[in-house]
Amino acid sequence: MSKRLKTSQQQKPNTNFNNKKIKSSKEGTSTSNMINIGDELSKSSSGKSLATPCKEILITAGTYERLLYGITGKWNAKHDKIDLMPIFILPAHTGCIKTISIGGRYLATGSTDETIKIYDIKKLREMGSLHHHSGTITCVKFHGQPHLLTTSEDGTISILRSKDWEVLKTLKGHKSTVNSFDVHPSGKMALSVSKDRLAIVWNLMNGRKASKTKLYREGEIVQWSPEGDAYAIVTGNEIYLYKTADAAVYSVIKHTHSITSIKYIKDSSSSSPEDLLVVGSQSKLITVYKADKSGTLVKSWVAHENRIKDVSTIEISDPSSELKSKRILVTASSDGKIKVWDFDSIINSNNDGEKRIDSEEDQYEPLGLYDADCRLTVVNASSNITGK
Q1: Which domains does the chain have, with CATH numbers?
Q2: Residue 385 reports pLDDT greater than 80
């Protein structure tokens, strides 16, 4: 049975998703499954989204209106822009879409309707739904393609195998909603934050808590640095930066507005690349900070007409040279617009060899823009494998 897709203003999608039932299972009881979770996760390619440049990008976005967007991004060499065209617009859930993740050929979405939908984006087919959580799904995240990790208001973290969508392990330790979690680049541990104000480090080799810390305020977002030697926890308008070795705070970045999203990215303009943090917030600005002890403001520009809901990054091949690539920043806003930015060009502009602090009024032209005409909630950028 196929689902009819909504027509876009910019292009009429001509692709249907075929519906197939997933036989969702309860947590597996196989001892070997549990023991091998950490080993399998450590072999997956997580945190490497910028390692291999892609030729075309696929942008997936969720909305308050329950619609799921799939948009391709292709270089327009003549105008040095990225043309954004929708290939599907799907009424995916009966509630607001809160979270999206792509792992290889699979796309997962989580919603306030307490379900997780799974799609095969290579075949453009809906595979079915997962119902192992209760309450709003707060986070879905693939670690490579083999494993999907999910969280919800029920306070648990589930690890599923994409081969058969079996729940291999359920991590229990929080007393309230898990707001955010992230898997360490090694795949051997993870970090979660919750409404209970706990930050828990999980040992994924045995599925147990390695440590827990009571935070001063509720942690809303957590993310590991690309090398995994540090991590960031967002509370309100503040970002606390920790060293992984001793879990000590080494910097606090105080932003001007409540933060909605962050993304680590390397500063390629330096001879010794440093970690940067891209920040989206309740303001219309995208702001970039150094993720070091100084927390220096690197760049700030007007990106949208309303608050930023989410940001994502990916590296795309430069059509002018097979040896070059561009780092792309994708932003989604409550104004209904998805924009694509040339991150390196913006970061390196007007610096004359030295970084300068820019005015809030700085503005740059995006490489591409798509108006969804909906209230966007989440966005994800990945390599386009649909063939569309």
Answers
A1: 2-383 (2.130.10.10)
A2: yes
